[in-house]
Amino acid sequence: MPLPSVSGSPGLNWDQAVEGIWHGFQPIAHMRTGRCHGYEALVRGWDALGFDSPQSFFNAAHADGALTGVETRLMDKAAATFKRLVGTAAAKLFLNVDPRLEGAVPLVTAIGQRYGVPIVHEISELDTTAVGERLEAAVEQYRRRDIGIALDDFGVGFGGMKLLYEAQPAYVKIDRFFIAGIDRDLRKRAIVRALVSYAQTQGVKTIAEGVETAAEFYVCRDAGCDFAQGFLLGRPQTYSDTLPFLNDTVLQLNQQDRRAPAMARQRLSELLERIPPININAPRSLLLELFAHPSTPSTLPVVGKNGAPRGLIRERDLKPFIYSRYGTDLLRNKVAGSRLDEFVVPCAVCDIGTPIDRVIEAFSEDSDADGVIIVEGGEYAGFLSSRSLLKLVNERRLAAAADQNPLTRLPGNNAISEVIEGALADLARPHCLAYIDFDNFKPFNDHFGFRQGDRAILMFSDRLKVLASRHGGFAGHIGGDDFVLVLTGVEEAAALADVETLLSVFRLDAESLYPMDLRHQGWFEGKDRDGHARRFPLLTASAVVLFLAPGRNEGMSVDHIVRLVASHKSAAKSHPSRIVCARV
């Protein structure tokens, strides 16, 4: 039998071809617990048949009118192999199904039921033209059969946000393009954070695709991504034994990361309401029984059969039924439908290990939000009501206000220490720590008065805020004329150039604080610390810039950084550029 070409395969025995295909399974792991939430089945062996890609293999099957049979057989093989390997673990099988497949919904449903395997159907954003008008009907059927939908390759195709809106997916797989080098690319970080923020408000889980480095893993995890998939966690492979329940790489990365949000986790646990959820398949008449009791909360979480949150049911949305003449009869009427879908409203979902600021942000995205559903390992753990979240907001505001500098409104010493500790603990990404203070500020303040001194400080702090926000960094005010700048994921040359520009611009800004004759003169006469009259140059600033390289040794503390800065301050003030750099 001649090998098929990529454009067609006349005479190819597709039964024999399918026999030569097998599946590799790639883990999709929770980024905080390491639990393998699922495995994606990827076809292997197509190259031995003479094809240059899996897509060309399926194109040839479609051209021969054999696509439905080929896909059905391969899905059956994948589910059978997965069932044998997964054991009793509650992992999901992620399947890429060709969008041209006729009757995909009943076929996928039948295979899932046959093997008792929870299936997630992946729809590629690149394939939306082939899905066409069938998408909406397919989505509804999948939801009723508890088969999840994942948008694959999200962000690089043609469907975009429209597909996200129409498909109402359970998962969004963020394309590798946005993950590659995200630790060094501010624009990618901003896009991923925005997408994750939207997904959280809709209760959609996010999967970072193609994670290959520890730095990418940490950035995606901290941005709020729920799961990760990529060569760092494991390549697609065949298994002779049970599929792992935990991903060792994720466990190791989280163990090495000293920024583990233990305090945030503890506070969320304290405020969490352990409201028993309703299953999406429960009869609608149950709502009448539950809300008839005064002790029932006015908002009830809803989960699927695997414990994954689906949204909320609110008592206020049922009032038109409860208080109408025939409303209660409709809720009890089995003919009208038994599922709860039409009463479920979206709700933000966050993992219990999510930083508190991110939880608050997810809640604040929706002005009509009742709270946030908290999950652990992808399963429902409890509910944070709007009252609890407002309490968290007030706590954060009070803590920030107590630490904030009253003049510049920049974070103070406590926040600065936390940020530096986080940078020291993050060994995967480069960090730039810059300590900046003014030169001869006391004589300037004494001679021209504290109001001019305050103007100088405000001038500089405004410039510092702009620089920090441009890189997604941190600007802090230690006190007086001492400031801190922390940039993460910025190359050394770029960070140094920005600090140089900051000092240069401030020098020009500060000239406006002097009378015209002193500007031309270039100095003013004041008194030093001993009360002696002397000449002082016009106001400038100096910086000690520390670069923390990825992969450096652990064990460094904030106190070590403080001592290092102190040892370089004099050199910075005497250097022509007013900058001294050191690598840690």
UniProtKB/TrEMBL annotation:
The residue ranges of the GGDEF domain are: 429-584
Please name the InterPro entries in this protein's record: CBS_dom_sf, Cyclic-di-GMP_PDE-like, EAL_dom, EAL_sf, GGDEF_dom, Nucleotide_cyclase, Rev_trsase/Diguanyl_cyclase
Q: Name one Pfam family in it.
A: EAL
The EAL domain is annotated at 5-250
**Which superkingdom heads the taxonomic lineage of this protein's source?**
Bacteria
Q: Read off the Gene3D superfamilies from this record.
A: 3.30.70.270, EAL domain
**Matching NCBIfam families, A to Z?**
GGDEF
List the protein's name. Answer: GGDEF domain-containing protein
Q: Origin organism of this chain?
A: Rhodocista pekingensis
